[in-house]
Design a protein that fits this description.
The complex is a heterodimer of chains A (303) and B (279).
Chain A (H helix, E strand, L loop, with lengths): L1 H22 L15 H17 L9 E5 L2 E5 L3 E6 L4 E6 L5 H4 L6 H14 L7 E16 L6 E3 L3 E13 L2 E2 L4 E6 L5 E7 L5 H14 L11 E12 L9 E11 L4 E2 L3 E4 L30
Antiparallel strand pairs in A: 1-2, 2-3, 3-4, 4-10, 5-6, 5-7, 7-8, 7-9, 9-10, 11-12, 12-14
Chain B lengths: L1 H21 L12 E6 L12 H14 L3 E7 L28 E5 L1 E3 L12 E3 L9 E3 H4 L11 E5 L21 E6 L11 H11 L11 H8 L9 E8 L2 H10 L13 E8 L1
Parallel strand pairs in B: 1-2, 1-3, 3-7, 7-8
Antiparallel strand pairs in B: 4-5, 5-6, 8-9, 9-10
Helix pairs in contact in B: 2-4, 4-5
The chains are: A alpha+beta (303), B alpha/beta (279).
Chain lengths: 303, 279
């Protein structure tokens, strides 16, 4: 009997050990990408690090994991992540301490100071300042409330200020570039908390076509009708692939915003069309999207 | 031989026990991967059809798949039913074929409703579907939806549908938190509305999922929505993120720091902490 108990204990322990090991998230850090790299890859990593540290002033404390894949090259530490696109003026930086405002507080300088810092950062990233169409600071508001479980009534606390974000939009030759933007937020210590700048160079041909679209759309051009709506606005501009993408497509477009006639309905339909009023091919996101087993028809429900 | 059979039997029992104990509390989830559903509607039967919502949901899902998560359902158009978002009724949010309370994250993109002004006190937080079944198509989430209750798994309800988290109605959202951690959406009105967009969902997807292999950071849901919820929106539209909590500090911590993969246990709905930012 004792032998059987011993066997049970051994098998149970082994099973649990194997199961637990397979259930746990690996705690082994990813191997540093710098080992066994070609000289070209090492140079790329060095340039990425230089951009993060010298251009953006990110503080890389502790071990740095760096690497590149597809059109991205990036690095991360325990707190900071930085990535840049290799085919576009696209930069993303994030310090996770920025989110935890209870511990780190919020950036409190005046909006003008923040805008100035934002301009300096964009300038250092070689973003043409003349292409900034508009920029502004928006600030979060935060609030909490407690519900009385007996009455269901809410006791609300006062509204408090939250994080500040700089939002910048883009134009080229007075043509709005709908997909380009810069979003910058600083931590309470003035360092970059979050940054996303997506400002790719636009091929000349695309600008020329957009200019041509603008001329055509200005001369008795009729936007395509959309049932259940009326045309609210028509604007000519440029679309391109988003920052998180492996594709980089550019499309000149005429953007038509529609207002639903049913006053209850929200979210305004938008069409991106060419001068003939035909929908354009939208810029791609992933060159190789993950494969999915999508079903097209849901089973009719049982009674 | 008897010993081998005996050991095999013990192994099976141990494995069963382990499985049982791993799954004994549906509130506890594996932090390394989550289950996502999306519902996206372009086709409203020819009445104010949208064009980009299905592509938007495809993008959102793609980042979750790339990050190693799994998909529960990804229905589009008439296969998204109003009943998928309602807690009561013979067909409801626990419907095995696509109820919104069956996954940990649900991303909805389609029409919602907007009030005539942002100071309204009338009911405005509606999702608007155009379903083949499961009518009515209008679901007032304040009164009809409860997520995370009665075995429901939903932790994050992410709504891209114009105004269904209208600020004047925000305090009425308490009942939807039946275990739900967070809800995100927009606030606006008929003249200040969100636009049909592919970029907004794509950005929100990549920022909430994170993609370690291209060093794209994973943000807390609240911060991700604060900086992506204003993409392709008109002036005065606000992005809203609300979190429930056991205590005031718990609710604030979730609002500021909880990621879709945090694996935190379900909160009660004693407290709610919310934040918003306006264009």
């Amino acid at each position: 009997m004792n032998k059987n108990l011993k066997n049970i204990a051994v098998v149970l322990s082994a099973t649990l050990a194997i199961s637990l090991a397979s259930c746990q998230k690996s705690s082994t850090p990813e191997p540093s990408a710098s080992s066994g790299l070609s000289a070209e890859d090492q140079q790329l990593q060095a340039r990425t690090k230089q951009l993060a540290v010298e251009t953006l002033g990110l503080k890389l404390e502790g071990s740095v994991d760096a690497g590149h894949r597809d059109n991205f090259s990036g690095l991360r530490t325990e707190n900071v992540t930085f990535t840049q696109r290799l085919d576009s003026r696209t930069f993303i930086a994030y310090d996770k301490r920025f989110s935890d405002t209870a511990k780190t507080g919020i950036y409190k300088d005046a909006d003008e100071v923040l805008l100035k810092r934002s301009r300096e950062i964009l300038d250092r990233l070689k973003i043409p300042i003349a292409e900034i169409a508009a920029e502004k600071v928006v600030q979060e508001k935060t609030q909490t409330g407690e519900r009385d479980p007996k009455t269901g009534k809410m006791k609300m606390e006062p509204i408090e200020p939250g994080k500040k974000w700089v939002l910048a939009s883009r134009q080229v030759e007075s043509l709005p570039v709908f997909s380009s933007r810069a979003t910058i937020a600083l931590s309470s210590n003035g360092e970059i908390g979050f940054l996303e700048v997506h400002w790719p160079e636009i091929p000349t041909k695309v600008i020329e076509d957009a200019r041509r679209y603008r001329d055509m759309a200005g001369k008795n051009w009729h936007a395509p009708a959309l049932k259940g709506t009326r045309v609210e606005s028509v604007t000519v501009g440029v679309l391109h692939s988003p920052p998180a993408a492996t594709a980089l497509d550019f499309v000149p477009v005429i953007r038509v915003i529609y207002t639903p006639l049913d006053k209850r309905i929200g979210k305004k339909p938008v069409a991106y069309v060419d001068p003939e009023g035909k929908p354009v091919s939208m810029p791609r996101v992933l060159l190789q999207p993950p494969r999915e087993d999508l079903k097209s028809l849901r089973d009719k429900p049982a009674r | 031989m008897r010993r081998i059979v005996f050991c095999f039997g013990v192994f099976l029992i141990a494995a069963t026990l382990l499985l049982f104990f791993n799954n004994r509390d549906p509130r506890t989830v594996d932090a390394s991967a989550i289950v996502l559903s999306t519902g996206a509607i372009n086709d409203y039967g020819g009445n104010a059809n949208l064009s980009h919502d299905i592509a938007e949901a495809n993008d959102f899902r793609a980042w979750y798949i790339v990050a190693g998560n799994s998909i529960f359902t990804s229905w589009t158009d008439g296969n998204v039913w109003g009943s998928d978002f309602r807690d009561k009724g013979s067909r409801n949010d626990m419907d095995a074929s696509g109820g919104s309370d069956k996954a940990q994250v649900y991303y909805y993109t389609g029409h919602g409703t907007c009030p005539s002004s942002q100071t309204t006190t009338s009911a405005v937080d509606f999702l608007v579907t155009h379903g083949n079944f499961g009518t009515p198509d209008f679901t007032h989430i304040v009164t009809d939806s409860v997520w995370g209750n009665s075995g429901g798994r939903l932790q994050f309800m992410l709504i891209d549908a114009s105004c269904p988290t209208e600020l004047p109605e925000i305090t009425q959202l308490f009942p939807i938190f039946g275990g739900l951690h967070m809800v995100t959406g927009n606030s606006g009105d008929v003249n200040h509305d969100t636009l049909d967009s592919e970029d907004r969902g794509n950005e929100f997807g990549v920022q909430t999922a994170g993609t370690p292999f291209i060093f794209f950071p994973q943000l807390p849901v609240g911060d991700a929505w604060m900086n992506t919820g204003l993409i392709d929106v008109q002036s005065q539209v606000c992005a809203v993120a609300a979190a429930a909590g056991d205590t005031r500090d718990d609710a604030i911590n979730r609002r500021e720091n909880e990621r879709v993969t945090s694996g935190w246990s379900n909160p009660s709905n004693n407290w709610m902490a919310w934040k918003w930012v306006c264009n």
